[in-house]
Amino acid sequence: MTFEIALVSGSVLAVLSGVSIMNAWIEGRRSRNAAVVLAIAAGLLVWAAFLAPDGLQFSDIPRAFVTVIGLIVN
Predict the structure, then answer these.
(1) Which pLDDT tens digit goes with each residue over 37-62?
(2) pTM (2 decimals)?
(3) CA dist., res. 68 & res. 22, Å (int)
């Protein structure tokens, strides 16, 4: 797995779990599943940072999304 795939997967999972955590907080219930998904997302983002050849920069995020979309389309 390249760092782009790990970065995009971690970013998408982090956003989705954030929405789920906010929904659970508003409804006054616990969100264990979203917390687990958030931990997985954090692990993927840390792994992407270690896999990146020259470290991660903010400009790598949009480039990673374009690369992964290109991999899916082709």
Answers:
(1) 999 999 999 999 898 888 888 888 89
(2) 0.85
(3) 28
Block residue for tokens 């409804």 = 27
Q: Which amino acid is at 66?
A: V
Torsion of CA 37, 39, 40, 44, to 10 degrees: 140
